[in-house]
Write a structure and sequence with these properties.
The longest helix is centred in the middle third of the chain and has 37 residues. This protein has a two-stranded antiparallel sheet with strand order 1-2. Strands 3-4 form a two-stranded antiparallel sheet. It is of the alpha+beta class. Helices cover about 50% and strands about 15% of the residues. About 10% of the residues are buried.
């Protein structure tokens, strides 16, 4: 397992998760680190994708001149946006249009 050699794992976008317990003599600590080593590249990459989407959506709101639109929060794979009633359709259009993965 590569995580044992290096002591960390990476998401597809390069975010590093240190795993100090990956070579621990205590089996409980080691097994927890092994589960993290398996899970992090998947969930870490999903998190990276949502963060990139948030940045790009925010840039698109500015580019489109939707100054009232604000990203309030992210929950799992969803974005919560606040905007004026007059901009709802425009904001929905921008969100539906999507973004291109890097």
């Amino acid at each position: 397992m590569r995580a044992r050699e290096h002591g960390y794992v990476r998401s597809i976008y390069g975010r590093i998760r240190p795993l100090p317990g990956i070579n621990d003599r205590n089996a409980n600590i080691r097994k927890a680190a092994e589960r993290e080593a398996i899970n992090m590249p998947i969930q870490g990459t999903a998190s990276d994708i949502v963060k990139i989407a948030m940045l790009r959506v925010d840039e698109e709101f500015k580019r489109e001149g939707i100054g009232t639109a604000r990203l309030l929060m992210q929950v799992h794979d969803e974005l919560l946006v606040e905007t004026s009633a007059a901009s709802v359709e425009h904001v929905a259009e921008v969100l539906k249009r999507g973004w291109k993965a890097p």
